[in-house]
Amino acid sequence: MKRKTSAGFTLLELLVVLAVMSVLLTLATLQFNRYSRKSSIEAQVKKLHADLQAARSRALFEKRDKAVAFSASGFAVYSSGSATGAPVDRKPLQYRLVLRADPFVVVFNGAGVSSTEGDAVCTEPADNEAALDALLITPTRIDMGKRNAAAPCSAENITIR
């Protein structure tokens, strides 16, 4: 008597394949979430840097003081050197900021020089994997950098990149 052979997969083989695929998909999702968070933090720091440079350029071009007021959840740009009245531009942030004071105000004078003496603006959380998570604002420069892990947000704890 000749036995018939089947050209298919058994239920056990299919279940094993599904289990392996679900583990791989879970790992990929975790990696994607980590990558997404990292790139969002870096994008926020780059956007802050660009907006500060734009405020500095406007102050220099118009030869008038411009103020930028940071809070933990956003920042506002003012048309004068005073952070009072209605701001010209207000932007919320996805990740909270660590500031020396809240609000923290940076004023750019008509020559483009800021009122700060090496102040840092850092993005929370401190233990993130982003390559850039902080700004260092000096009178003549705005630099992007990385805060040393678990260190307070200050100029000496930021590595310029």
Automatic annotation (TrEMBL):
Entry keywords, A to Z: Membrane, Transmembrane, Transmembrane helix
Annotated transmembrane regions: 6-30
NCBIfam families hit by this protein: IV_pilin_GFxxxE
Protein name per its UniProtKB record: Prepilin-type N-terminal cleavage/methylation domain-containing protein
Organism expressing this protein natively: Geomonas anaerohicana
